[in-house]
Predict the 3D structure of the following.
Amino acid sequence: MNNIEIVNLKTDILIIGGGAAGCYAGARIKEEDPKADVLIVDKAHIKRSGCLAAGISAINAYLNPGVTPKDFLDYVKKDSEGLVRDDLVYTLAQGLNKATHWLEKWGLPFLKDEVGNYVAKGKRSVKINGEHIKPIMAKAVEESGVEVLNRVNISNYIVVDDQVRGAFGFSVRENKFYVIQAKAVICATGGAAGIYKPNNPGSARHKMWYSPFNTGAGYAMGIRAGAEMTTFEMRFIALRTKDTISPTGVLAQSFKAKQVNGEGIEYQEEYKKNSTPYRLHATLEENKEGRGPCYLDVTHLSDESNHRLKRAYLNMSPGIVLKWADGEIEPNQSPVEIYGTEPYIVGGHSQSGYWVDSKRRSTIAGLYAAGDVAGGAPKKYVTGAMVEGEIAGLDALDYIRGRDFVDLSNNLINKEFDRVFSPLEKEEGFLPEDLEERLQKVMDEYAGGISTNYRLDEGKLIMARKELRRLKEDLTRAKAEDVHQLMNLHEVIDRVDVARVLVEHLLYRKETRWRCYQERVDYPKKDDENWFKFVNSKYNQELDQIEIIEREHIRLGDLDGSQN
Amino acid sequence: MAVKIDKNLCNGCGSCKESRCMAVCPGNLLYKNEDNQAKIRDKRECWDCAACVKECPRQAIAMYLPAEVGGRGSTLQAQDFGDKIVWKLKKLDGSIEEFNIQNKLLFNSNL
């Protein structure tokens, strides 16, 4: 470890993660106050980092004419069994259209009708040609004057006197350790994939919907620092095309595909609801009852529509286009089979994440959370993540006024340096990928993965708890041979920290609130009387204990910023 | 998922420290070998985002579906032309389907 250079940096506002939330936060801060120093740090390159690397074919959170922020909130509540942070959903809904217009101003092509209006995909979405969304955001960030540090993996926050004062990180390409001091920090990393055994084997194992490179670092850093987390138990499981794990909304909404079972019957109306979790639940049930496989039927498409459908997928998920070509068919020659994915932890779709107030302040001073790591506001998608970045960024500008940097003790720096780099010193030890597969196997079998139809019960969850504790110990005996492998190892360490919190949340909520996402076999009913509340948690590092905290539901107007 | 890099076409982006594909790969999976050519560390790690396919100035990178999920040899390549991207889907019979998609607005004076 003697050959590792220590790089010291200082900035007013540090943004961790250059995705939708981080890029927009940076650009908006610079627009409001060009003199503020803003640094975005990303473990990849912001031109193609995060879940938008491949692109996107629609802006899925936009208020089309006649839709109000309150309508958006009502929809999100209905889709989430009523229990969301109304204040957070409402405040982000207020900024959705402005964020959308910024994307167009930055150069993102929107589909327009003959009079120049956006083409709606659904009530709350519009169609785009979004293949280039990430390079467009990266260019806007560059032009705004925000500094960017690519290929640096942030490993932990710098916490002094109960305040976040910056973050530590390491280069994934060079032998460098970063000590970045900041007056405020915005965590805008992705959620976590790869906690559960994925759908596909072998060289297709990363053929998943959410980015396999989003490995929960933002959550894990917050957990280790003792930030309060909320609703990890509401996992997100997507209904996707089988094998290629491509999105299905484009088939159902833009191309009017019918959702049918193996007998050709439209089955959704046989079920209680038509919400996002219920569509997945219905599909699983049909398969379980011997009426599978289930499909989105696009056999009504014209030849011209075949080509248009493939274009839409090339804008976001090209794999399925290869699937049709390898099957030597066109989309209208066969219905597209659909299936559930591995469970992901992602606050942009479900609501696992930091417990924040309406300004996106976490429970630790100086630390904000926005986008996929911020809890309480499901279905925020790209534009909702952007708005959260903006809200956090503008509040951070106020927070930093009059604040200065503090002296950091060598002890603090050395402790994190050793935690990060000591696996490089080991000659013998577990390999990161072996421990990753063990994590995925434990979670799949004991904590409601694909192989158990996502179902949970107390006995198995307690097994998961024990196995994860042992896995955490074994991770201290893991080795890495180079800095890339070191990144892979820290990705496993982070995911185990996330998984342990997840299991405690799953154990605590003794009802079934969200079908498939959180389905307790031993408590199969929704119980509004006892469980219409948030399950939060806080990790105590010294005791290695996860404490559960119950929080009451927050209505619109309970916190400031949501009344207007 | 995986990509294949055509040895006859890849020149490692010349003497640049990082080839363009290596600069953008979100998984940090590409590197330059001693022959100054881009290589993938481990194809099992690839997500299928096609960032490298789009970035390559010589169209040396093609993506394909792994055999585990039904891949049988068709490939996708892409070329960026400033305000549009042109995809070439090479099918099993050797035919090519082309997709011409606007991917950025170059002039926004009306906004």
Remarks:
- Chain A touches chain B through 54 residues (CB under 8 Å).
- Chain A is about 35% helix and 15% strand.
